[in-house]
Amino acid sequence: MTYTYNLRVGPLQVKTPGITYQDLGKTLKIRTKNVESTVAAVADIAKAASYDDVPTLMSLDGNYLLKSEVSARKIITTVQTMLDINALQFKGNRKHGVSVLVGEPLPFTFANELKEAGAISLIPKISHHGFDTCVDVNQEFFKHDGVWPSFLVDNNTRHTSSTNYSIPLTKRQQEIADLIMQRGLSNKQIARHCNISESAVKLHIGIVLKKYGIQNRSQIGIAMK
Q1: pLDDT for residue 1 is more than 80
Q2: What is the pLDDT of residue 165?
Q3: Measured between alpha carbons, how far is residue 56 from residues 8, 22, 116, 193, 207 in Å?
Q4: 122 DSSP β-pair partners
Q5: Which DSSP string do the residues of 44-82 spell out, in sequence order?
Q6: CA distances (Å), 68 to each of 84, 103, 164, in order?
Q7: Using alpha carbons only, what angle is made at residue 98 by residues 28 and 216, rounded to the nearest 5 degrees?
Q8: Can you tell me the mean pLDDT for 35-60?
Q9: How many CB atoms are closer than 10 A to CB 61?
Q10: Per-residue model confidence (pLDDT) at position 163
Q11: Side-chain-side CA neighbours of residue 64 (13 Å)
C-alpha cells in the first residue's frame, strides 16, 4: 500500500528542540496534517473537496483511546467507514488505513482489541520514543503494510478502563480458567479433575484465550484480574 497523506489526531507534544511532526512527514516523503481531536478529524474528512484531500492513513492517539468513554472499536470503525465512503465518492482506488500512535506502552489486551477493530499498526510517538525510532518504525510499516513493535505493548497489564466489561464465560470455561490461575494445573490434570478429555480442555482454553484476546494460558491470570 502507498501512503501519500497522513492525518494525525491528537495534541502535538514533540519535546525534542527543532524537531516537528512536519519534519517526520518530510523525511518519510508523505503529506502530513495534525488536528486536535477525533471530531475535528471526522469534520476534516467530511469536507474533502477532492480525492487528494482524503487521507490514505489516519493516525489515532492510542493513549487517548485507552481512556476514552467511547470504545476504541467504535472510533476506529467510524473513521475507517468515513475514509471508505469519501474514497468511493471520488471514485478513488487507494486503500485507506488506521494506525495507532503510542506513547506509554498499551496493555496487551487493549492492543489486541485495536488490531481486531481494524488498526493496521502501532506507531511510536516522537515525544516518547524519539525522532529516529519513529522514522525507523514508520519505514518498516510502509514496507510491510503493518507493524506491531513489542516495545509498545505491555504484556503484564490488561485493559481496565471504564469502558471495559466482564467477559462472559460458561461454567466449564470459568472452572478451567480458575484451575489454571489458582492451582496451575496442566491440561492433563484438568482433564482428570473435570472428568473430560484432554482435547475438550484444549478446546475450552482456546475459547477463553480468544474471548480475552490473549495468546497463551500463562496470560489468563493477568487478563481475568
Answers
A1: no
A2: 42
A3: 11, 17, 20, 54, 35
A4: 100
A5: HHHT--SGGGS-SEEEEEHHHHHH-SS-HHHHHHHHHHH
A6: 24, 16, 11
A7: 110
A8: 84
A9: 20
A10: 42
A11: 16
Q: Show the cell assigned to 159.
A: 485493559
Mean pLDDT of 113-125: 89
Provide the pLDDT for residue 13: 63
Rounded to a whole number, what is the distance in angstroms from the first to the last CA of the chain?
39
Q: Which fold has domain 5-154?
A: Rossmann fold (3.40.50)
Q: Which helix (H) or strand (E) holds 205?
A: helix 198-212
Instruction: Tell me how far CA of residue 29 lies from CA of 5, 32, 34, 53, 205, in angstroms.
Output: 9, 9, 16, 16, 46
Mean pLDDT of 54-79: 85
Cα gap 87→90, rounded to integer Å? 5
φ, ψ (nearest 5 deg) of residue 185: -70, 150
Of the listed ranges 41-50, 88-97, 161-170, 197-206, the least confidently predicted one is 161-170
Domain edges within the chain: 5-154, 171-223
Reading the block at residue 186, the C-alpha cell is 496442566
Strands 57-61 and 31-35: unpaired
Q: What is the pLDDT of residue 162?
A: 41
Count CB atoms within 10 A of the CB of residue 117: 18
Joined grid coordinates for residue 83: 475514509
How large is the C-alpha radius of gyration of the chain? 21
Q: Which CATH number is associated with domain 171-223?
A: 1.10.10.10
Which residue in the block uniquely carries the three cell numbers 510502509? 142
